[in-house]
Amino acid sequence: MKRHTLILYNTMSMKKEPLRVAKGKALRMFVCGPTVQGFIHVGHARTYVFYDVLARYLSHLGYRVNFLVNITDVDDRITEAAKREGVKPGEIVRKYTGSFLEDMRGLDVRSVTSFERVSDYIGVMIDQITLLVGRKYAYLADGVVYFDTSKFHDYGKLSHQSKSELSLRPLELTPNKKNLLDFSLWRPEVLEEGKWDSPWGRGSPGWHIEDTAVSLTNFGPQYDIHGGAYELIYPHHEAEIAQGETLTGKKPLVRHWVHTGLVNLSGRKMSKSAGNTHLVKEILREFSADELRYYLLSWRRWEDMEFSIPRLRSSSKAYARAVAKAEKLKGRAKEGIDARKSHGVGQELLSPFYSVMDDDIDTPKAIEWVEEELIETGSSEAAARYSALRVVSDVLGVHFAKP
Predict the structure, then answer these.
(1) What are phi and psi of 145, to 5 degrees?
(2) Tens digit of pLDDT for each residue in 156-173?
């Protein structure tokens, strides 16, 4: 395979940049996972499907992808869910972690190397917070340990906002914090069960330090790609940068910040708290993973998309038409048309696919090319085209070409 230059839009630089990997072909990618306090919805599915495609494509290009997703199983929302359901928090964690992993399999998200539970990293978090306190980057107030954002001069660089601008969006309001932007590292509350002993009393970690503990433990002080929906840029990803770069003394923490857009329902962000969701497990009862992935990948990864069942049904009909054409192509390929040339020509035929995928993983154009050019029924070189279609199907996880 010829060399490819994958170009990704980097939120940090606000421009498209060639992929830079620190260790040759060994690529490390971290994506923020769910808080296991409920069933995941289509908004979550969109995020994980995109990064699954990104990881599949990177693997296809020859990278050895170490793709980690954290599972947030320490959070006050878990305690709230337990109260609503009348069970203990541990039961909530087991129930919804299992459901999440089941939904990932249902969506054919199969490129993740490891799902890491943040509760396995509590000791690491306590060590990291102790180091931040010792270096005067964190302080204790009212039993809570806060990160002192005034000490980290680059705070706001990912969201491209000054501290005065960010102060209009204050965090965790309390009278004894030093700064409006300071965020908690350790709190005496959060969980009703499973609190841990620490130098600051029994308690639980803040949200942001959980991801830092997982990423630095597995990847070291710097890694290649960090992903998640763009709503996480502030405060979550800003906090990760502040913690990580302070702890290690190395910049940048991440070479490429690759964010996805949101899913809207009737013009509003799909959100469990707002009560406007379509759950993945419900959708997969009526539609296949191929149909849902096809619909989700018909939007550029940074765009907000509007979801509705009628739109999904319409999209599924378009997918069915493409599969029908692909089946005809398969029949012609089996007749032996151009069979001797199928491998080499198949690679040549993939050139337009590589062009659009190398341009910030443009899946809508990839799908358009498949439907308008690759599987046209009157096309020649059927065996080669079907061979190319199988490659595309494997990368997108949308099976135009059935096994």
Answers:
(1) -95, 125
(2) 999 999 999 999 888 888
